[in-house]
Amino acid sequence: MQIKILGSAAGGGFPQWNCACSNCWAVRAGSFQGKARSQAQVVVSGDGKSWFLLGASPDLRWQIEATPELHPRNGIRLSPIAGAVLASADLDHVLGLLLLRELQPLHVFGTGSVLKVLREDNSFFGMLNRSPKQVEWSAMKLNEPQRLTIASGEDAGLTCTPVSLGTRYPAYVKAARAGHLTPDDAVVGLLIEGNGKRLAYMSAVGKIDEKLLQLLDSVDVLLFDGTFWSEDELIRVESSGATAQQMGHIPVGGIDGSLWLLAHLKTARKMFIHVNNTNPMLDESGAEYRAVRDAGWEIAEDGVDL
Ligand SMILES: [Zn+2]
What we know:
- By secondary structure, this protein is α/β, with parallel strands linked by helices.
- 19% of the residues lie in helices and 25% in strands.
- The protein has helices spanning 22-29, 60-65, 91-94, 112-121, 175-178, 210-217, 233-238, 258-261, 287-294, and strands spanning 2-7, 41-45, 51-54, 81-85, 106-111, 135-140, 146-149, 155-166, 187-194, 197-202, 221-225, 269-273, 298-299, 304-305.
- The longest helix has 10 residues, at 112-121.
- The structure holds zinc ion (ZN).
């Protein structure tokens, strides 16, 4: 299995257009010890030919251009991108689908409720079904492995098992609508398997329980929620707003944080991804970055191959 990280930041990217927090300010001033990042985007392949996007970020156009494996070949309009697997209906995670509307046959997977929100409530996504051979949508059942086939039906050598990580739908989904959706479908982690290897992609994790710990211990590569370092990080920058937990993210730092709770994982390769621009661990000269690295974790960067 090949895994490529095209983007590693949370929604808004790093730096974020309307933010002058100490991190964003320092990046623009050229004094930051660390790297700018585009919005979280991972691609996987089981055969080296067909690639599946995990989510579809708003930065997808440039992320594709920066990745030769994803360029069309032989002078024809045919992309190696075979489809996408969606973990939620968050805008930062699905807007990129609208950038793929040039009649390319794609196979898009998501939980039943997430596909309903996109296709029944948002007419823009109809642009992906202007012709019969455009986008095929497949609903995934929780905890059941699903073969990732390309639009023609061919097997691409990968399976995906979605595991529920949260019941929070994006703010644009009204409460009345959410009441008709399956709560556990809202946010899932993606367990991707191929060639005897296992990847867990979990960019929004609200809590860590024993069942999740067992699952994470069984994978070869873990890409885990690194959105916030502390519970009140955004409130301190914005002087108001929501806590990390209220936004569906367990913080990395602190005694209730993921770094501590996942300290005994045997996973070979552990990376934090979906890192918000306010997170102090982005600063490679800082104590938080050192703590993460000393604990055997990496912080995902754009352009990393696994
Ligand atoms: Zn910022």
